[in-house]
Write the structure tokens for this entry.
Amino acid sequence: MKCYAVTMDKRSYRQTRRAEASEATRARILEAARANLERGPVGALKVDEVAREAGVARSTVYLLFGSRAGLFDALGRYLRDEAGFEALIAASRLPDALDNLRASQRAAVAMYARLPDLARGLFTLATIDPDGVAAVAAIEDGRRPGMQHLARALATQGYLRDDVTIDEAIDLLTVITSFQSFDELFTGSGRSAEVTADRLIALAERAVCRPGA
């Protein structure tokens, strides 16, 4: 019985070490993919180059991520979480719809402002590379459903303008909270993250909320 327990302990130890090694390799590949993209989006994220920079075989990339699209998806989620996605989720759970709108927009701007060039590269690449769509989908995951929930909450709590329908509010909020709207102010106009958030919040409130809300 004692011998069996020792054998199980050794097996568990080996499995733990393998899992840790796999996770470390996965993180190294994602960092290499990130560096690959930061050099420019057009034609970027070549699996051979990522594998070489990560110090692994090309087959290892496919083993861990399944496909090039799978690597894009994992990269999008990795960057999203690194940029502060949890803060955005926490803000979106605020019960007061107007507080929710304001806090969510500030969290989204803070998230984009941490990785603006990389985010822009991913969004640009997604327009010409089918696999790149996976990364954008990971970053955008849940945004439109979130705006649907927010628009309905604004209506239920009496914040929504009388001349704006819920469907219109969803469309307006989806556009205002997009990376493209952020980038137009932050990069295009050279505004700070704080001013960018202020302007987008003001735009959202004027577009969908009752005056004086």
Notes: The radius of gyration is 22 Å.
